[in-house]
Design goal:
The chain is an alpha/beta fold. Helix content is about 60%, strand content about 10%. It is globular, with a radius of gyration of 31 Å.
Length: about 600
């Protein structure tokens, strides 16, 4: 926390005596360096508020950058038991009890709570739990078929907070089991995986690997880079049998799924590990194999993500501090030169600023055009999906009618209702991937131009005022942020209207009854397709609009920060020279001290001695 700030109504307030030199730095503590940088920018006054906000955002991003690990597996492989063992408490209901297909996000928190998100937008409930047993009971109320049959309560997802140590660096995600009667759950899982850092896939010896699992893994490897495997239930096997099963799993993964596990198949008994956690049996815990999972999948991978994130934050923080240093240097130099020279340089630099503003307007015009083009492409794609979906669902209805033999409408209704979420969840995944690629390609090109535009302003200021110039580090791969579909997606509509025969139908010959039934089915399918494609179009359109809106704002804000850090500094010095000459000496001393502090932070973040 910062100490209370003095008056910041202008850049020359009495805070000038609060910037102090950094002591020699013995270690590179990034959060501490960010806090120091935020404090320095705060003391420099309102002019540095944009840079202060960016640095504060980087600090928050660093503290919140937990590793996202999705736990996958077929029903009855022991996912819930393994997660309970990792948490050290029996809180997740076992799959021995039939469960609904609801994902559970397990995050760190000082208290045990269950937060239920419903499919109805904006509806949620948070329930504090005072014991593992209470948390288990609360979860059963929402995720078990007994208490929530066929998810009649409309639960979209469940979020748990728990004080387990493992959750300080990792968010565990318990996904619906694959191979269930709810086939669209597999598609939902696949659509969610790109937002995760890694996936942990459970197999066991009964049997070691099914065709359903192999087929699922073929799709998983396209969605997430890191997949690790756990062979559960090793307590049922002898040591030679374990080795035989692991060798078999490796062969199947390599030959049928095209996955090389590279030695990372962890044998474990989740049941023994949970029992050991609950009873404090260290010997049983060691023999269960759970420690290897914790050490490798959690500790190592979480540290690796932290390292990558820290490096990205460090580079961005350097850019921010260099910009701040440039502003301070420009103001110092402007305060020290003759007023005539200062006005001449300001006039020269103004031309560069005007040119950058023209480029910004042109960029925004082109960006708006690209936005319209992508939206038009979405409309075209959705029109094609409507045609394909009607043909596909008509085929489903026809096959159901032929299989029924007696034109029972309930058989047809059930077949179409079951197919709709599978078809549209899969289609949503394909559309999302396509438009993510499209937007990344378009926005990456615009980002290069925007970065070059801001860089030209910095370079011009440095050249005109003969100040050393720092070229910002290139931006990393463009990532589009979007909410998990389990949270934001509308539910698929699969309920047909009345297609049952009426009194007239019953009096007609069979061929005519079938013809009239096909007509009613076609009309109902058309209505359902229009409804569900609109859901798909709306979800994708929100992501497209948000991506372009955020990117457009960031272009304007980045150039505005750059101009303010350069032209603003010079203009402020010019006003000071004319209006408040008596304060110049004190301001120069303050800026010199601030410059030394900033250079110390830059040196520390650059891994050079402070």
């Amino acid at each position: 926390m910062h100490e209370p700030a003095p008056d910041r109504t202008n850049a020359f307030s009495p805070c000038t005596d609060r910037v102090v030199s950094l002591p020699p730095l013995s270690e590179k503590d990034l959060p501490s360096l960010l806090d120091r940088g935020i404090s320095v920018l705060h003391d420099l006054g309102p002019a540095m508020e944009p840079q202060e906000r960016v640095l504060s955002g980087l600090r928050d991003r660093l503290s919140e950058g937990r590793f996202q690990l999705a736990v996958l597996g077929q029903f009855k492989r022991g996912k819930s038991t393994l997660l309970n063992a990792l948490l050290g408490e029996d809180i997740l209901p076992s799959s021995v009890i039939p469960l609904t297909a609801i994902p559970t996000f397990i995050r760190h928190g000082t208290e045990r709570t269950v937060q239920v998100h419903f499919q109805e937008k904006g509806k949620e409930v948070t329930i504090p739990c005072h014991s593992p047993e209470e948390m288990n009971r609360v979860l059963l109320d929402y995720v078990s078929e007994e208490a929530n049959p066929k998810n009649r309560k409309g639960v979209a997802s469940v979020e748990i907070t728990h004080p387990a140590r493992i959750l300080r660096d990792v968010v565990l995600i318990d996904t619906p089991g694959i191979g269930s009667t709810h086939r669209h759950n597999t598609e939902m899982t696949l659509n969610f995986l790109p937002q995760c850092d890694a996936a942990l896939f459970l197999v066991s010896a009964d049997p070691p690997m099914t065709e359903v699992e192999v087929d699922f893994l073929r799709h998983v490897r396209e969605k997430v880079d890191c997949i690790f495997f756990v062979q559960n239930k090793i307590d049922y096997l002898t040591l030679p049998e374990r080795e035989t099963v692991i060798a078999f799993i490796r062969k199947v993964l390599s030959e049928k799924a095209g996955i090389s596990p590279e030695g990372k198949i962890f044998p474990v008994s989740a049941k023994q590990a949970l029992l050991a956690r609950l009873t404090g049996d260290e010997a049983l815990l060691a023999s269960s194999g759970i420690s290897a999972i914790t050490e490798h999948l959690v500790d190592f991978l979480a540290r690796e993500k932290t390292r990558v994130l820290s490096e990205a934050v460090r580079k961005k923080a350097l850019d921010v501090l260099h910009d701040a240093s440039l502003r301070v240097s420009l103001e110092r130099k402007s305060l020290g030169m003759p007023i005539a020279d200062l006005e001449e340089k300001l006039s020269l630099f103004q031309k560069k600023v005007d040119e950058a503003e023209r480029q910004r307007r042109q960029t925004q015009d082109v960006l708006a055009g690209d936005h319209r083009r992508v939206v038009a492409l979405l409309e075209e794609v959705c029109a094609g999906i409507r045609e394909q979906a009607e043909v596909h669902l008509q085929g489903v209805g026809s096959r159901a009618m032929q299989a029924g033999g007696d034109t029972d409408p309930r058989t047809i209704e059930d077949a179409i209702a079951q197919e709709i979420p599978v078809y549209f969840e899969h289609t949503l995944g394909e559309v999302t991937e396509r438009f993510d690629r499209e937007m990344i390609a378009v926005l990456s090109a615009h980002r290069e131009k925007a970065e070059a535009m801001s860089e030209s302003v910095r370079a011009a200021a440095s050249a005109i005022f003969e100040i050393p110039h720092h070229r910002p580090s290139p931006g990393g791969p463009l990532v589009l942020a979007r909410e998990p579909y389990w949270v934001s997606r509308r539910t698929w509509s699969g309920m047909l209207g009345m297609i049952s025969p009426d009194l007239v139908d019953r009096a007609l010959p069979r061929a005519m009854r079938e013809q009239r039934l096909r007509g009613r089915i076609a009309r109902e399918i058309h209505s359902l397709v229009v409804q569900n494609v609109e859901n798909l179009r709306w979800a994708t359109l929100q992501n497209v609009d948000a991506a372009f809106r955020v990117f457009s704002r960031e272009i304007d804000e980045e150039l505005a920060r750059t101009i303010d850090a350069t032209h603003g500094a010079i203009a402020a010095a010019c006003r000071q020279r004319k209006e408040r000459a008596e304060e110049i000496a004190g301001r120069v001393r303050f800026l010199e001290e601030a410059s030394r502090t900033l250079q110390g932070l830059i040196a520390a973040l650059s891994d050079t001695p402070g």
